[in-house]
């Protein structure tokens, strides 16, 4: 059994936590369905653990913003660079995606087109179709998304594995076993609807139709498979 660590970078909305569990609980639920377990490290309140004790790590989403450069977030960057230098497998999600990209030489900041929320189609690139993690997914698949910031510039040595109409960097690979995705593989349709319900006014202000987004929420089994696919790749 691989020694997995979930790096907690934030908390979900209270009603989401009460009904479905926090970010790390959603990760753990998905992993447990296929017999995997993971420890949790709260990056906001604890020092980064020893990398020698790990076989792989996940980085969760957060309501924080990478561009705010909070001290706890900045402290993770050299730790992530060391993990990458050791070829430690990593999978970053949403905030984790943006933080990994920033740590490795990219730029993460507010998307000029605003927030992307709801279930949206993501398309694999040619590199993505050949990738060890994402390559087993359909070329086009639905994914759950909620983010105001994005990876605006990928690190020079990163491979773009997936994109969509809103975001050119929906998935990146930084090395043989280091990946990150903008979408949320841990989200269920119920969690996605809860997020949209919280964002109705902001989405209206942005010129979007919240009810259409709510009606468009679907299951996302391909995207959701990534958490356990990553764990299985560790052998």
From TrEMBL:
Q: Which residues form the Glutamine amidotransferase domain?
A: 22-195
Query: Which Pfam families is this protein grouped with?
Result: GATase
Q: Which UniProt keywords apply?
A: Glutamine amidotransferase
Q: List GO terms (cellular component aspect).
A: cytosol
Domain of life (superkingdom): Bacteria
The record's section on SUPFAM superfamilies has: Class I glutamine amidotransferase-like
For whether the record's keyword set contains Heme, the answer is no
Name the residues that span the membrane.
none
Establish whether keyword NADP is in the entry.
no
Stored InterPro entries: ChyE-like (IPR044992), Class_I_gatase-like (IPR029062), GATASE (IPR017926)
Record's Gene3D superfamilies? Answer: 3.40.50.880
Give start-end ranges for the coiled-coil region(s).
none
* Protein's name in the database: GMP synthase
């Amino acid at each position: 059994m691989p020694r997995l660590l979930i790096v907690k970078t934030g908390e979900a909305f209270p009603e989401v936590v009460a009904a479905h569990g926090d970010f790390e609980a959603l990760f753990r639920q998905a992993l447990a369905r296929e017999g995997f377990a993971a420890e949790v490290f709260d990056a906001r309140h604890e020092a980064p653990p020893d990398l020698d004790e790990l076989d792989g790590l996940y980085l969760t989403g957060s309501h924080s913003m990478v561009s705010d450069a909070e001290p706890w977030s900045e402290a993770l960057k050299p730790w992530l660079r060391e993990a990458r230098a050791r070829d430690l497998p990593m999978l970053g999600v949403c905030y984790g995606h943006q933080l990994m990209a920033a740590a490795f030489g990219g730029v993460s900041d507010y998307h000029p087109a605003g927030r992307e929320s709801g279930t949206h189609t993501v398309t694999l690139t040619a590199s993505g179709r050949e990738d060890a993690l994402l390559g087993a997914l359909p070329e086009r698949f639905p994914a759950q998304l909620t983010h105001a910031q994005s990876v605006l510039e990928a690190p020079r040595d990163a491979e773009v594995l997936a994109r969509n109409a809103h975001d050119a960097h929906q998935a990146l690979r930084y090395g043989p076993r280091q990946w990150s995705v903008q979408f949320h593989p841990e989200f269920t349709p119920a969690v996605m609807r809860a997020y949209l319900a919280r964002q109705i006014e902001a989405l209206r202000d942005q010129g979007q139709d919240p009810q259409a987004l709510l009606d468009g929420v679907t299951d996302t089994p391909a995207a959701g498979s990534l958490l356990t696919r990553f764990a299985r790749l560790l052998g």
